[in-house]
């Protein structure tokens, strides 16, 4: 029998995560509805990609990310699409007429059970200043799509952490999941 198929043992549980030991494996689990986060791939009508910058405690550094948030952390019955639009508006001040789930997959399958949904937001319009909720200090960056990759490389050279999922998000702006270029 595989020792890592043993019953899980919870060694710590907080508001949003728990630490679990299963056999010889240690990992974290999200405790909110479904253990799912949404990353929002959003381009403004002016062809600018929306990025957010915020200090991330685990890294002890400022990080560049696409807008994102936990699905179901406000309302356990909230859909992925509704969560994505809510987070987009909260973090960036932009809302979307449509949200489409592109794919769902693990964020770090060796360390966490969390999964992430890439969500394309379209029909964007500005409705507020963004910046996050009272517990967040988010800076919004609107970067011309043609310059986005170079901008990210510059930010990394300046010492910012850059979420690796950014590169997948940029690819999804330009391509369908089957590899065809978007028209």
TrEMBL record:
InterPro entries, alphabetically? NUDIX_hydrolase-like_dom_sf, NUDIX_hydrolase_dom
A Pfam family (short name) is NUDIX
- Asked if the Swiss-Prot or TrEMBL record annotates the protein with the keyword Plastid, the reply is no
What CDD domains does the entry give? NUDIX_ADPRase_Nudt5_UGPPase_Nudt14
Task: Describe the location of the Nudix hydrolase domain by residue ranges.
Answer: 33-174
Keyword annotations for this protein, in alphabetical order, are:
Hydrolase
Is Hydrolase a UniProt keyword of this protein?
yes
What the entry lists under SUPFAM superfamilies is as follows:
Nudix (SSF55811)
The molecular function terms of the Gene Ontology recorded here are: hydrolase activity
Top-level taxonomic group = Bacteria
Q: What is this protein called?
A: NUDIX hydrolase
Organism of derivation:
Stenotrophomonas mori
């Amino acid at each position: 029998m595989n020792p890592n198929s043993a019953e899980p043992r919870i060694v710590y549980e907080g508001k949003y995560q728990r630490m679990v030991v299963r056999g010889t494996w240690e990992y974290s689990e999200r405790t909110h509805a479904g253990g799912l986060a949404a990353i929002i791939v959003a381009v403004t009508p002016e062809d600018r990609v929306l990025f957010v910058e915020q200090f991330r405690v685990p890294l002890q550094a400022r990080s560049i990310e696409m807008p994102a948030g936990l699905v179901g952390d406000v309302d356990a019955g909230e859909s992925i699409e509704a969560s994505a639009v809510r987070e987009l508006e909260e973090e960036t001040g932009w809302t979307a007429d449509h949200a489409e789930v592109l794919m769902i997959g693990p964020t770090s399958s060796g360390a966490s059970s969390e999964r992430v949904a890439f969500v394309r937001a379209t029909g964007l319009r500005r409705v507020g200043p963004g910046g996050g909720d009272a517990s967040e200090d988010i800076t919004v960056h609107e970067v011309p799509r043609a310059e986005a990759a170079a901008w990210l490389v510059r930010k990394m050279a300046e010492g910012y952490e850059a979420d690796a999922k950014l590169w997948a998000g940029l690819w999804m702006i330009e391509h369908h999941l089957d590899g065809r270029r978007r028209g």
